[in-house]
Amino acid sequence: MTSRCILITGAGSGIGAGVAAELAAAGHHLVVTDLALPAAQAVVDGILAAGGSAEACVLDVTSDASVAAALAQASRPVEVLVNNAGLQHVAPLEEFPIEKWDFLVQVMLVGVARLTRAVLPGMRSRGFGRIVNIGSIHSLVASPYKSAYVAAKHGLVGFSKVMALETADTDITINTICPTYVKTPLVDRQIADQARTRGIPEADVVRDVMLKPMPKGVFIGFDELAGITAFLLTPHARNITGHTIEVDGGWTVQ
């Protein structure tokens, strides 16, 4: 596999950190970005200790200036962008602070457009680029109490389709990977939030809310998401663009 320079947003923990470590182990150079530099640097330190190549940058996906600064700081041109930064808030709409609702959309939809817009000129000039959006099962289906998250993740699919058409004239692809639950700190917080909102024990949230809709009945692993991302970087995937790739244990085939 050709080694690529891959920038991942929100990579100081969770999916971003796990995918960064897996892709670095496969021989790629990782630009690990996060709002918190110490978190990003800790991921980089782990990659370097394992013999990989990586660097850390502060990046706020809601800020044009921060995006420009991170891209200028990166030691190599960004060939692959993984839009992963995300957060969650669980509440009925009537109790959902509109400022929080707007912030989730700013991070997970507008931020994706901001990063994509920033890297596209360089990708076009080099004649190669891959953009991988980390969507969710909630890019395809809905759950109660997650209106902002579901709206943003649904919007991500539409955005990817438009960008696939706008980049069809060169070797750039954009796709959205849609996993069900991955065991991360974000999901751990969701378990607690869902238990409180629904008035049920946390074990029941895992069994009856998160895993029950999945015939496979297991959490998704970082290695699965990294493996799919790695495939999308190859020439074999050059005509896969604008698609949603469901990693859902059979959820949406029922």
Task: Give structural notes.
It is a single chain. By secondary structure, the chain is of the alpha/beta class. The protein has a single domain (5-181, 221-248), classed as NAD(P)-binding Rossmann-like Domain (Rossmann fold, 3-Layer(aba) Sandwich). Helix content is 47%, strand content 15%. The chain has 8 helices and 7 strands. The protein has helices spanning 14-25, 37-49, 64-73, 98-126, 147-166, 185-198, 202-211, 222-232; strands at residues 5-8, 29-34, 53-58, 80-83, 129-134, 172-179, 244-247. The protein has a 7-stranded parallel beta sheet, with helices on both faces. Helix 5 (147-166) links the parallel strand 5 and strand 6. Helix 3 (64-73) runs parallel beside helix 4 and helix 6 packs across helix 7. The chain starts with a strand and ends in a 7-residue tail after the last strand. The mean pLDDT is 96.
SSE arrangement:
Elements: E1 5-8, H1 14-25, E2 29-34, H2 37-49, E3 53-58, H3 64-73, E4 80-83, H4 98-126, E5 129-134, H5 147-166, E6 172-179, H6 185-198, H7 202-211, H8 222-232, E7 244-247
Parallel strand pairs: 1-2, 1-4, 2-3, 4-5, 5-6, 6-7
Helix pairs in contact: 1-2, 1-8, 3-4, 4-5, 6-7
Oligomer: single chain
Total helical elements? 8
Second CATH tier, the architecture: 3-Layer(aba) Sandwich
What percent of residues are in strands?
A: 5-15%
Overall, the morphology is: globular
In spatial order, strands of the major sheet run 3-2-1-4-5-6-7
User: Could you state the CATH homologous superfamily?
Assistant: NAD(P)-binding Rossmann-like Domain
